[in-house]
Amino acid sequence: MGRVVSPGLLAVIALLVAPSFALPQTPEAATESAPRTVTATHRPLLTTPLPRNPQLVARLQALLPRDMSVEQAARGFASEEEFVAAVHVSKNLGVAFRDLKTRMVTEEMDLSRAIRTLKPNADVGREVKRAHKQAEHDLEW
């Protein structure tokens, strides 16, 4: 006479065993295969044209690469102030805006860490404070 296995027990076994098949075999494989997503609940992203003031748009456009609109440049930043501060840091330190944006938006670094990565000898605290002050001034318009 054979043993009878309940469907509930089979479900528990399946739940315990199935996740182990989905995991990569090495830590390196886990890093390489893990998708990197940013959700709106984790980090709100600017998707609308910013800023709305035409004079400010013109001023920011002059600080950006010629082939990049203000709307394209702002896309992905967490806030309007973060975007404007990044534009100023780029100009103040002579750092390529595309590189700064990559660090902040794609690699999710804050402004301080992005500066430290791109310009290791900069006075990071002073530069962040300066850029935020410039951004606040710009956004008062």
Give the CA-based shape.
Answer: globular
Number of helices: 8
Strand content: under 5%
Tell me the span between the first and last alpha carbons.
85 Å
Per DSSP E runs of 2 or more residues, the count of β-strands stands at 0
What attributes characterize this protein structure?
mainly alpha, globular, 141 residues, 0% strand
Task: Explain this structure.
The protein has 141 residues and is an all-alpha fold. It has a domain at 54-139. Helices cover 61% and strands 0% of the residues. The protein has eight helices and no strands. It has helices at 7-22, 27-33, 54-63, 70-74, 80-93, 97-106, 111-118, 124-139. The protein is globular.
Q: What's the short version?
A:
By secondary structure, the protein is an all-alpha fold. It has eight helices and no strands. The chain has a domain at 54-139.
Mind sketching the topology for me?
Blueprint: H1 7-22, H2 27-33, H3 54-63, H4 70-74, H5 80-93, H6 97-106, H7 111-118, H8 124-139
Helix pairs in contact: 5-8, 6-7, 7-8
